[in-house]
């Protein structure tokens, strides 16, 4: 099982899941924290009086070089399937230390 880190969003994931299925990563939109950093860096201007928390509830802020490993629509299935967008690629990541991977948290809701 190869564990990689997305060079666009920083997400770390296993390419093959524990049940043997392949995982197709797609970068998520910016979080409120990431949007606030983009605002502080002068990359995004929010409407007057709007916070980053408000902004991500109202609009979707996509990453310019988002990675999307899903297969391009219309692929005929012959040869290697092209992905939607490579983004900035991936970097190999070490497996998690046992203490860093506590497993799922089960919540009775």
Account of the protein in words:
The protein is of the alpha+beta class and 109 residues long. The protein folds into two domains: 1-27 and 65-100, no CATH class; 29-62, no CATH class. The protein has helices at residues 32-40, 52-58, and strands at 3-6, 12-14, 68-71, 83-85, 90-92. A three-stranded antiparallel β-sheet has the order 2-1-5, with no helix packed on it. A two-stranded antiparallel sheet has the order 3-4. The radius of gyration is 17 Å and the shape is globular. The mean pLDDT is 91.
Mean pLDDT: 91
- What percentage of the residues does DSSP assign to strands (E)? 15-25%
Shape designation: globular
Strands of the biggest beta sheet: in what spatial order?
2-1-5
**Rg computed from alpha carbons, rounded to a whole number of angstroms:** 17 Å
Low-confidence stretches: none
What structural category characterises the helix and strand content?
alpha+beta
The number of domains: 2
Distance between the termini: 33 Å
Order of helices and strands: EEHHEEE
Helical content (DSSP H or I, runs of 4+): 10-25%
Provide a count of the helices.
2
Number of strands: 5
Largest sheet: 3 strands, antiparallel
């Amino acid at each position: 099982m190869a564990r990689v880190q997305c060079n666009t969003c920083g997400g770390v994931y296993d390419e093959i899941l524990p049940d043997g299925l392949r995982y197709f990563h797609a970068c998520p939109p910016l979080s409120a924290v990431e949007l606030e950093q983009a605002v502080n860096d002068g990359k995004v201007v929010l409407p007057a009086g709007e916070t980053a928390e408000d902004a991500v509830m109202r609009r979707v802020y996509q990453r310019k070089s988002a990675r999307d490993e899903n297969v391009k629509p219309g692929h005929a299935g012959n040869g290697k399937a092209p992905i939607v967008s490579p983004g900035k690629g991936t970097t190999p990541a070490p497996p998690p230390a046992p203490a860093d991977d506590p497993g799922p948290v089960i919540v009775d809701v």
